[in-house]
Amino acid sequence: MKDTLDLLTHRGSIRKFSDKPIPEDVLHNIYKATICSQNYANGQQYSIIVVTDQKKKDFLYETTVSPTSGRGMSYIKKAPIFLLFVMDFNKIDRVMKKERVEMKIQDSLEALLIGSVDVGIAMQAATVAIANEGLGSVAVGAIRTSVKEIIETFELPKYTYPIAGLAIGYLDEGVSIVETPRLPLKSFLHDNSYSKAAFDELVDEYDVKMKEAYAIKGIADLTWSKFVSNYYGKPIYIEQIESYKKQGFKL
Ligand SMILES: Cc1cc2nc3c(=O)[nH]c(=O)nc-3n(C[C@H](O)[C@H](O)[C@H](O)COP(=O)(O)O)c2cc1C
Fold it and tell me: Where does ligand 1 bind, in terms of residues with CB under 6 Å?
């Protein structure tokens, strides 16, 4: 069994799953660890739709497109379970109605920050618990390709919003964890105030490492600098704003 530091530092997203079913007790451990996460004001502003219905997984696969490759992601339909993480102020609204107080948080940007940070932390806890149980996972933010359709299909009520998914399962035969290099630690840490010094040289160093990592995956001549420039050189999923407002939120 790996210790916590090992689980956190030697990890990697898994995108090829076996058909092996996940036992109920294993799932219970994963869900329990997930909901014990720290969360804003203990409001627990998220819900998890456990997607096991193959038709619904197929729907998610068909409506999800990678912003980089423009292609679908087959692991969404092949994973035995897809966890859809939804920011959830609906339950807060219900409680507040019972208390006869009107909810107003949805009128501030803060709602999106609170809800998505809660989801992010819960997803990380789930990811670590999944790895601890000997399974693998990959987060899927690209579900936001089709927020409108997801809201309809999963009957997401007012004051909820789909943030991301987690495809989970046992690793397919022959698949093992591949650790993607990170930027040097020095580039994350700033001594008391934000410093731009040294970042450019550190990126050059990192680009060499990532070029090798991409080459191992069969992608030639790609660096991290090129990858992020392609990724962030255009707005992504801008139609979301309408769905976000329809769910009762303001920006
Ligand atoms: C919020 C979030 C959304 C993500 N969305 C996707 C996605 O849509 N498709 C995908 O293949 N990977 C997705 N990933 C996985 C990242 O690409 C991956 O974590 C990153 O490349 C680092 O690789 P590693 O997890 O193997 O270390 C997502 C990760 C996060 C945290």
Answer: 12-13, 73, 138-142, 164, 180
